[in-house]
Write a structure and sequence with these properties.
It is built from twelve helices and nine strands. With about 270 residues, the chain is α/β, with parallel strands linked by helices. Strands 5-4-3-2-1-9-8-7-6 form a nine-stranded parallel sheet.
C-alpha cells in the first residue's frame, strides 16, 4: 500500500508529471495566518506541504526564510503550535503534510513523544536536514512505529557511497539540494541538480525531489524534466512578506504562485 506520501508521489508519476511540494514555516506571519497560508498552498495546487519548525539558527536557510522564522519566533511560536498547524492543515485535505525541522527541537521535545504527537496530528513524516543518518536510528524506529516517513537531504557534494547510505536510511522521498548553499530564489537552477538526481536514482527506488532555488513556473518545468518532485519555499515566503501584513493579499498571492508552479510541473 505504501505511505500517504509514497501514494501521492506515485499518483503524480502516473499523471506523467512531477509533484509540487510547498514549504512555509509555522507561525508565519502569525499562527492562524500560517495555517491559512499552508491551506492556500494546497488550494493553489501543491500536492504536498512542508510545515517548517522555526529555528533560531536555520543553517540550511537563506535570508528570506530566516526572516520568516524570526517573525514566527518573536510571535511566540512553540512546537505545540507547529503540531496544531499540521493538524489543521491535514484535517481538510488528502495532501500529505510533513514537518521540516532541525534536530535539536525534536531531541529536546523527546524523540518518541514528537513522533507520537506528529502522527496524532495527522502528519505524514519529517524532513531532517541536519540529522546524520548514523545518528538517526532512534528517530527512525519511533517514526516507523507511527507510520511516519523520514526524508533526508543529499547535496551536490555527496559522494556516491554516501548517497547510498543516506537513501538506504530514508523513506518517502529523497530531498536533493540543487545547489551548495542556503535556501532562496535564484535566477537559474544549476546543472548540479540534474547530475545529483541521476546519481541519487542510481542508489534507490525512492522518488527524488529537488529544492533550493526554484521560484518560477519555468524553473519548475525545467526541474520537473528530471526530478520526481519540485520543492518551493522561499518564493512563497517572499509573497507573504511582500503583502506587508495584508492577509487577504498574502493568501491570494500564495495561491496564485502555487497555481503557476503547478502548471509548470506539468510541462515536462
Amino acid at each position: 500500500m505504501g505511505s500517504k506520501l509514497s501514494q501521492t508521489l506515485a499518483a503524480a508519476k502516473a499523471e506523467n508529471r512531477a509533484a509540487l511540494i510547498g514549504y512555509l514555516p509555522a507561525g508565519f506571519p502569525t499562527i492562524e495566518g500560517g495555517i491559512k497560508a499552508a491551506r492556500a498552498l494546497i488550494e493553489g495546487g501543491c500536492d504536498i506541504v512542508e510545515v517548517g519548525l522555526p529555528h533560531s539558527d536555520p543553517v540550511l536557510d537563506g535570508p528570506t526564510i530566516q526572516t520568516a522564522d524570526d517573525i514566527a519566533l518573536r510571535g511566540g511560536v512553540r512546537i505545540k503550535d507547529v503540531l496544531r498547524t499540521v493538524a489543521e492543515v491535514a484535517a481538510g485535505t488528502d495532501a500529505p503534510v510533513l514537518v521540516m525541522t532541525y534536530w535539536n527541537p525534536v531531541d529536546r521535545y523527546g524523540v518518541a513523544r514528537f513522533a507520537a504527537d506528529l502522527a496524532a496530528a495527522g502528519g505524514a513524516g519529517c524532513i531532517l536536514p541536519d540529522l546524520p543518518v548514523e545518528e538517526s536510528e532512534e528517530w527512525r524506529k519511533a517514526a516507523g512505529e507511527h507510520g511516519l516517513d523520514t526524508v533526508f537531504v543529499v547535496a551536490p557534494s555527496s559522494k556516491d557511497p554516501r548517497l547510498a547510505e543516506v537513501t538506504a536510511a530514508g523513506s518517502g522521498f529523497v530531498y536533493a539540494a540543487a545547489v551548495m548553499g542556503v535556501t532562496g530564489t535564484r535566477a537559474a537552477v544549476g546543472n548540479l541538480a540534474e547530475d545529483l538526481v541521476a546519481r541519487t536514482r542510481a542508489t534507490t527506488d525512492l522518488p527524488v525531489c529537488v529544492g533550493l532555488g526554484v521560484s518560477t513556473a519555468d524553473q519548475a518545468a525545467r526541474v520537473a524534466g528530471f526530478a520526481d518532485g519540485v520543492i518551493v519555499g522561499s518564493a512563497f515566503v517572499q509573497r507573504i512578506l511582500d503583502a506587508d501584513g495584508d492577509e487577504a493579499a498574502a493568501l491570494t498571492a500564495v495561491r496564485a504562485l502555487a497555481g503557476e508552479l503547478a502548471e509548470g510541473v506539468r510541462r515536462r
